[in-house]
Amino acid sequence: MEDVEGGHSPKIDPPCSPSACNPPEPSLSKNARKKLLKQQRYEAKKADKKLQAKEQKKKDIERKRKEWEEKLACVTEEERAKLIESRRNLRKERMGKRSEDREKKIVRLNTAKDCGQNIVIDLEFSHLMTPSEIHSLVQQIMYCYAVNGRCPSPCHLWLTGCNGEMGSQLQRLPGFDKWIIEKERRSYIDALQEQKENLVYLTADSETVLDDLDLKKIYIVGGLVDRNRWKGITLKKAQEQEIQTARLPIGSYLKMSSSQSFPGPYCEPSHRDSTQVLGNKRLEGFFLSGCSSKKKMWS
Description:
It contains nine helices and six strands, in the order H-H-H-H-E-H-E-H-E-H-E-E-H-E-H. The chain is an alpha/beta fold. The chain has a domain at about 115-295: Alpha/beta knot, CATH 3.40.1280. Helix 5 packs across helix 6 and helix 5 (about 130-150) packs across helix 9. One of its GO terms (biological process) is tRNA N1-guanine methylation. It is an enzyme of class 2 (transferase). GO terms for molecular function: tRNA (guanosine(9)-N1)-methyltransferase activity; tRNA binding. It comes from Cucumis melo (Muskmelon).
């Protein structure tokens, strides 16, 4: 007030710069850099294999087409008509089975929406990830949804914090608009404020072991692919928000080299990766199967 009365303008703090608003990215240790390079080589090799598999698939389709044409050329008109009809009926049968399976999946997911176990994937870490890590996370989420839909009693999935590049990449997924899940631009703490006492953040750093699932609880998984840069970040977040935490008893069922965080989809299980989201196929099925049992999580 003295400055104002004396004719001086009040001091206004400058706006927060991006570098000041976001925490500085910790430097990688020599060992972490070696692991990152190994990971990058592995991903490059995997991409090359995927391309080769795609080319091989094209060759197989062309080979089968030629074999079919040669087979038809060697039979009488009557036998040819029977073969074509048989093939057409088989195709209709397969399409009917797919349609039936799709309808059953929709029924299961809608049932889970009403009375299933709620699982939240926290997507508020995109500013801490590189574009390739965000892409990796989006692929993991797609796989999670596919596996969950195949479960006899699936969970009900939530995606919270769907903003920015993360939201854009999710929108580019085929059929994403038709996914039977909850999509929230808000954080889970805002979207589920009335159920805060039931929120449980799953983090490998928690001292509480989760042995049983509670349908009243809403379990949160951190959507973060960070290659071991942000240790303990999900536990710290949960503690600041004053919500419960727990960790899965992974070490009791799988042999891990060090940390018991979820490995990413491109990592060998023996290598440490602090990916918090349900990325590894075996661990993901391990968790989702437990969720669908509605009873003891680990037998």
